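=== RUN LOG ===
request id: a7f3
mode: sequence -> structure
chains: 1
length: 288
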Amino acid sequence: MVRLRSEGAVKLPGAKRFRLQTGDDGDWELSVFLPSDELRDSRTLMPTLYVLDASHTFVVTAQVVSTLLSFSLGQLQPFAVVGLDRCANNAAEFAARRVRDLTPTVFVPPHFEGKSSFGTGGGEATLDLIEEVIAPRLEQRLPLDPGQRGLAGISLGGLLACWSAVTRPGSFTRYMAVSPSLWWDDHLLLDDVRAGALPGAGADNHVYLAAGEMEDDPARSWPRVPDELIEQFRDLKLVTDTRRFADKLRVLGWNRVTFDVIAGASHATVWPAAMLRGVIALYGTSPV
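=== RESULT ===
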């Protein structure tokens, strides 16, 4: 007799989950992926890529990294992936905390009205938490190299990665920003007057930037944007903005800047392909 029996949830090999208790402002959930011992030198510490918006980004990132390492013929540096997300009681609270935690300045655009009950401008506190609390604690428990921390994100998470790159160039050595929300605060990071005194970059820092081909025109998006919202998002030119930011980084002294336009991708579909390219750009090595 053929029988089908449940064996529980599917687990991602090499992944662990931690809960960071931070007091009255709420906890964080940390998802950690470590390559298997067969794919890395257990005698050396690994770089770490901290990925924001983990509920949208962590599992696909960890799985892609695991697969790439298996087929890389030694041409991809083994590294850990750490996903970060706020713990919340419901979807509305999660969304509101996300807006606060991933934005670097106090600003409320029209399409965020009613969605920012926790406020905005908490990005600096999030970066402090990663740099001063989360990373040191994980590095005490796991074989992670404190001198090789990376930061990645999409949309608002990509905005915070870009903000960190130009305001804290010594905090991370690698950055991946996919479709970053550089429209934030009236394009603050692209404004040569308001953001003209930003520091330069360390010689070893490396940034990967990408946006989807469809992201300069909401009418070409998938899923299709409702007609009543197209005008609201008409001025969001993510490809143009991201290209301008790449040029700005080069002017600031970044020697290693990669910018990709992902063919056929919209805001909802860009992460997997861009992240895959970004991983190879940031952690790929020459043939052994």
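=== NOTES ===
Residues 123-141 form the longest helix (19 residues).
Helices lie at 54-71, 91-102, 123-141, 156-167, 184-187, 227-233, 238-252, 270-283.
=== END ===
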